[in-house]
Fold this protein.
Amino acid sequence: MAEAGGRLRPEYFERDDESDDALFYAQPRLVTHIDEPAIAALTGWFRDRLPAGGDVLDLMSSCVSHLPTDVAYRRVAGLGMNQVELDAKPALPYDDASFDACLITVSVQYLIRPLEVFAEIARVLRPGGLCAVSFSNRMFPTKAVAVWRALDDEGHGKLVDLYFRLAGRFDDPEIHDLSPAPGRSDPMFAVMARRAAVA
């Protein structure tokens, strides 16, 4: 997957559809990307891990929230598929150490510059803050990057683990299988890591 020295090759992030992303996302895609059991499993997992009363960044968010409705957070900032994300520089429009948690839900497969995005996530997280990247086996295949399309579920988890490690500033990632009913509902996985404490 990675070259010697831990580098990811540029061709790993090529897509079948390299047309302007603004064209693809110009048409609203108000879809649910995972089935109800997978949503319930992910929501329960968030309930157990996201800090009540905390500040949460929902990155690459959609019209469907997977956050538990019975937990009060101080702030939930959603950043979806808009012009900010489509700009050439993947910088988040937030100050350093602004959030206690960051989520990327069923969207990591579209990142063409993941290490820069993960480094930005580390910047906006407070020390000890959680980043949780969840995914299933669904995607818009023409916009998913080549390396994602080439891997299976286990490989996807290892790839996200590698993103965290190569981006730096995170503690060791953990890979979790949240699949609620293998073979009967969508598989569901999450990779989480905490922002390393400031030395």
In short: Residues 10-194 form a domain with the Rossmann fold fold (CATH 3.40.50.150).
